[in-house]
Amino acid sequence: MPRLIEVLSRRMRRTAELARLINMARGVAYASQPVADRPPVLFFNASTRLSGLSQNASFSLLTSWAVRLAGTPVIHFVCKAGMSCCVLGTDETDPSCPMPCGMCIRQSRANFTGSKVRWFTYQRDEELFAALEDLSLDELMRYEHPLLDGIGNIPLGVLVLPSLRWRLRLQSLTDDAPTRFLGREFILSAWNVAREFNALLMSVKPQAAVFFNGMHFPEATAFWLCRQYGVRAVTHESGFQPFSGYFVEGQATMYPITIPDGELTPQQNTRLDADLQKRWRGDFSMAGVKFWHEIHELSDLLKTKIRSHRQTVAVFTNVIFDTSQLHANVAFRDMFDWLDTLLEVIRAHPETLFIVRAHPDEARPGKASRESVAMWTEQSGAADLDNVVFIPPQERVSSYDLVRAAKFILVYNSTISLEATLLGVPALCAARSPFTDYGTAFFEPEREPYLQQLNAFLTADRLSVLQESIQRTRRFLYFRYYRFSLPFGEFVESTQPTGYISLKRFSLHQLEQSPTLQILLDGILHGKRFELDV
Prior knowledge:
Elements lengths: L1 H30 L9 E4 L8 E2 H15 L4 E6 L21 H11 L4 E5 L5 H7 L4 H5 L3 E2 L6 E2 L1 H13 L8 H28 L3 E5 L4 H13 L2 E7 L5 E6 L16 H15 L19 H8 L3 E6 L8 H4 L6 H14 L3 E6 L15 H8 L7 E4 L7 H7 L2 E4 L4 H7 L4 E3 L12 E2 L3 H13 L7 H16 L3 E2 L4 E3 L5 E4 L4 H6 L1 H12 L8
Helix pairs in contact: 2-19, 6-7, 6-8, 7-8, 9-17, 15-17
């Protein structure tokens, strides 16, 4: 009975949320007065939600409302069972399962009530299917296809590869029947998106297009086409504050930001310190997900292990299938290539304790890695070494206590290197990240110099962090948190399931007067930078 009550309550809440969303969308439609002959802005975000509103889906929707209220036409490019397999709807354990199109289309109809929508459906290209049918996985991932208007070949294989890894929760793809099947279907679906979006571009001549992420194949395909035709393409991702978004003309997953010179003011330092203190207690979230509901101190057993070795190095890993990894891999093929190389160093230094900490998102329900650091630890033999301690993603040990216990830390491209620098512990990065170009941590973009730097750290009597690096890191964090993370908390709030949100009650006047939406309008319509004045 309690379970039935819970289900009914959830359905009633969901129905009420949809009704409020539809009413608000109708209000926007009634209040919008598009200026004649003004080119439209296109919005496309097929890879951020199925049913319900994810944070990024809400950011896109609110932004589109603001654009319409400012008099600029908006066209939503929306999937109506337009892909044989999509990024979110595919079952990674059985890619042949039907897509959950019904719930997605129902949510789309609510989101875009009163909006101008270009729906696209799926029509398989039989000639392309025949061309792909007997290709190996490697051939599929290198496949290019000529565009209809002759502007060049579209690299369909390259465009779908990040989505294939993300959906299968793998970095190392196996050339087997299920993987080839999904690779073919993603390519066929990407080509269908290309044909439909290409036709839309040709018919409406937009002034700009706004995409979620820009790396998953539906949006990546549309983004690629915009680049070919010279259409300004804006992408967005979750920001670094709760209920915040990061928008940029270009690729949001690279997080390109500019940091002004000079010192932070006392007021800026105080604001940053307040957020850092919360973060060090685990009180933070990303994309609506709170990773740490509790944090534990280091166990007595681990403290004893630390004392039994001459020095300690903490190793922090990343989620291997995350789309940001594509930009990260420069010195090493991928994170596991780095770990394999690191294992040789670990074996050569038995006096050093290496504590390997798996990223908490690696075991997130519904998004768990199928190629994990735990698997690597067992398969590589690292688990059998006396100078290796592995901390699984579910274990709530404080990462900051691990940093404080370490002589230095090793990361692939994890942001904990920033916090380590602030704690006075050197961080050596093995992959490129948005902060490695700002002198916030040690980074070598080539393998041999990286290994030389690592050996120098291991053999040094003492290590320290320059005060200049600490100040650069503080500036980077401050501007990343407050200048480039655009707040939407005035309009959205958390709901269930975790990671989804609902719209608050607000007036259209509030939306029009919002500093965040004003910045987005200036960026989308006038090419200005998407940043707050802080």
